[in-house]
Amino acid sequence: MKSITVEELAARSGVPLIDVRERDEFAAGHVPGAVNVPMSEIGDRLDELPAEAFDVICQAGGRSARVVQALEARGYDVTNVDGGTGEWIAQGRDIEVPSA
Predict the structure, then answer these.
(1) Positions marked active-site
(2) Residue 98, number of CB atoms within 10 A of its CB
(3) Which has fewest Cβ within 10 Å: 13, 34, 60, 77?
(4) Which superkingdom heads the taxonomic lineage of this protein's source (predicted)?
């Protein structure tokens, strides 16, 4: 399984980012530009995933690692973000919070 650090994620551009946390977690704050496809829904939403290579993030890296393994088995070119959104926030990086 391919993985990158939060620092590497911050330096990337043009690579789609899928956040697999649940909707309420995503709404509380997420990495700018991330698209929410919760782990609990991903099996029903495969048609929404990018055709090109993309990154997957969750809160700490565990859920995203499981999703990456499952998607790799289906032929997707995916990369896990180690440390997840929690590490992103811990480093003081900007987050997006949707307006109510």
Answers:
(1) 58
(2) 10
(3) 13
(4) Bacteria
Does residue 100 register a pLDDT over 60?
no
Pairing of strands 78-81, 17-19: unpaired
pLDDT of residue 98: 78
Token pair 């959104």 is at which residue?
Answer: 85
Q: Give me the domain span that covers residue 24.
A: 2-45+55-90
Cα(43)–Cα(64) distance, rounded to whole angstroms?
Answer: 14
d(CA 74, CA 82): 21
How far is CA 80 from each of CA 86, 97, 100, rounded to the nearest angstrom? 14, 22, 29
CB 45 within 8 A of CB 70: no
